[in-house]
Amino acid sequence: MADYRIETVRNGERDWTARNDRGAEVRIAPADSAGAQPSFTPVELLLAALGGCGGLVLDRTARTVPHDDLRIVVESVSRPEDDGRVGRVRISYELELPEGDTAAADTFERGVRLTHEKYCTVSRTVEHGARVEALGPDGTMLFLGG
């Protein structure tokens, strides 16, 4: 298992950039912040992480099935009673499998199951939750949840 570190810095009001140690960046802002576009919202990044993790894992768990044209669509639905959380996440794996090739279909379906049951850290964390610790500038614990 890998440990991860992301630094998020403020560009301006409601406009942030997240960076990893390898130099990749992603802009984060609300969808209605016209001056901070193009960007992802935090929830969109969570959904992107689910789709990306699923794709990377499927590259290993279903590698014998041609899936260059695989498209993973991740959608969320929240209701007021979800109390500020994402209520439901639906991940759709869109792929034309060879007609009549039950072995390819079985392998792909097994790969998707293994992705979510065992190998996709993001999916498993969303499903089971994670401990969240928020530290202040002096290192004191300001919040502990999970």
Automatic annotation (TrEMBL):
It comes from the Bacteria. This is OsmC family protein. SUPFAM superfamilies: OsmC-like. The lineage of its organism: Bacteria, Bacillati, Actinomycetota, Actinomycetes, Kitasatosporales. Pfam families: OsmC.
